[in-house]
Amino acid sequence: MKRLRQIVTKAVVAKGKKRTESSEVLRPSNVPTSILGCWVINHHYSAKKVGKFVEVSGKFDVNVWYAYNNHSRTAVHTETVHYKDRIKLHYRDEDVIETNDCHVRVLQQPNCVEAIITQNGECFNIVIERDFLVEVIGETKVVVSVHPIEYEEEWRFDEDDNDESSSSSSSSSSSSSSSSSSSSGMDFGKGKYGNISDESSSFHR
């Protein structure tokens, strides 16, 4: 246990995921005859941690393109929808320091799944789907193994050793060849011209 240490650091301590389908009733200014299209835009949201849940609050605009007056005219009805989703958190560790640092990732932006005219014929019934993934960042403990300061992984110098040995061998071979050539030149001069000079001296005598 002397070589183990506990470090307090920040990490993801809890996660939660939730897919929601909500039914919204919208009342246009004209009595609709048919729905020509529906789309969702301008999504804004915020999140906060409440106990073991994360509350995601947001809003978006629903645009419904529809025909009225017996399919003779068209119009677009726009309405802002507010929502609040409670997402349950799942913890990996029991002892976690409380925190309110939440990260939200939208897996599915609010999208229209179904759009119909209600039975009374005056409103739209719009089904909206959305999907969120939340993460809570908090302080937790990490156990690490401690080594002495002198500890270091083994280094390998295989490639450098080969280069140095090859360069040293080539330099030694070149030096030996130069010395042999110089020594042979000196022997050649002494063996040939040394005898001629001796003969000429004895001739003059």
From TrEMBL:
<protein>
    <submittedName>
        <fullName>Spore coat protein E</fullName>
    </submittedName>
</protein>
<feature type="compositionally biased region" description="Low complexity">
    <location>
        <begin position="165"/>
        <end position="184"/>
    </location>
</feature>
<dbReference type="Pfam" id="PF10628">
    <property type="entry name" value="CotE"/>
</dbReference>
<keyword id="KW-0167">Capsid protein</keyword>
<keyword id="KW-0946">Virion</keyword>
<feature type="compositionally biased region" description="Acidic residues">
    <location>
        <begin position="155"/>
        <end position="164"/>
    </location>
</feature>
<dbReference type="InterPro" id="IPR018901">
    <property type="entry name" value="Spore_coat_CotE"/>
</dbReference>
<feature type="region of interest" description="Disordered">
    <location>
        <begin position="155"/>
        <end position="205"/>
    </location>
</feature>
